[in-house]
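Q: What would this complex look like in 3D?
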Amino acid sequence: MKTTVLVVGAGPAGSCTAREIARAGLDVLAIDRREEIGFPVQCGEFIPIADELRRILPGSEAYGDLFEIPPGIVERETRYIDLYGPRGSSFSIKFNGLTVDRRRFDKEIWRRAEKEGARLSTGVEFQGLENSGSANTSAGKIGFDVIVGADGPLSRVRRALSLDAPKSISQAITAQAAGDWGDRVSMYFGPVAPGGYAWIIPKRETANVGLGVQKVMSSLPLTELLRLFQEKHDIECGETTYGQVPISGPIKKTVRGNGLLVGDAAGQVMATNGGGIPIAMICGRIAGRCISSALRGGPDLGAYETEWRRQVYRPLRNAARTKAIADRFLSGDLRLELAMKMLRSRGLERAILCKRLFYLF
Ligand SMILES: Cc1cc2nc3c(=O)[nH]c(=O)nc-3n(C[C@H](O)[C@H](O)[C@H](O)COP(=O)(O)OP(=O)(O)OC[C@H]3O[C@@H](n4cnc5c(N)ncnc54)[C@H](O)[C@@H]3O)c2cc1C
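A: Here is my prediction, written as structure tokens for the whole assembly.
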């Protein structure tokens, strides 16, 4: 089998990349090891509305129609984020977001690529590179001119291209709880989720309940932490799913030869809150445009590295620095509580918006 561009992973990053390439009239094939796009859901399912995104990522020029999400996929509009410290403090931040049905969301993002002519093979796993123009997959060899690693935090394409992995990857667990949970997103910090946070994110008739932790900071397994959190908040959850989130900011280099990385594979995540869906989509669009231009005789793939860094790197770097400082200095309950009290809602809002926390760094 042969394609001009092989996209590994049909999550938000891969689908948005494939869409732009197909839109430019080029041949693009996406493969995904999942049998069903978007399932199982390993996500909190929360995204900021487009106006909030513009506050977080003011340099991005790649919005367009990316965040026009059909009403059936939006589960609920949320108005506030409430943050809870380990010793009883709480802060409310006005922040408009949406919760989505991620299973349907990922399918919708792929559908947009398919409409432009992109092809998809599900149930096909990338296993490694045969050489710089051929991939080994569970469905045999696939030849390509350009390969895109949009295969998530544990990217095998990244490994095959010998690009660096993120320094820190958090482990997360999530489940659904029935009921009406209002329109406020809640985030809980402290021993409830060492090195991360626990969340309750309201959906239409359920809430997404979960937590993310750093293994090195936690002595309890994720399931036990979630059980304790549920017990404390009197929540009954259904089945759990697990996932990973890169939380050390973007990796140093995202392009090598005729390959590039996008989304979680490149560490393009807001490290302070683990949000990666919108950045994956924006960087996917940038990647798709740069690849199309390179294949049509424009600047080489290195333009992708320059362009995504120009548009979104700074907020991602700020968030990674804030997260690193919090991990280093705020691991104790008391220190964390005091820091939250010192920052107050205004400082915490800056952290959510991926702004520099202090003017010192
Ligand atoms: C528990 C949890 C909660 C989260 N909550 C939120 C949230 O509320 N809001 C938010 O914005 N972000 C959240 N995130 C992060 C968000 O899910 C990711 O940032 C986002 O999905 C990144 O998109 P992506 O396309 O880069 O990767 P993914 O969505 O991970 O897609 C990667 C795709 O590649 C496929 N794949 C992987 N390896 C291979 C292979 N070898 N061969 C073929 N296919 C492969 C996978 O099957 C998958 O479909 C959360 C993450 C977790 C784990």
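A: To summarize the key features: Helices lie at 12-23, 50-56, 102-115, 156-160, 222-233, 277-295, 302-329, 333-352. The first strand starts at residue 5 and ends at 8.
Q: Very helpful, thank you.
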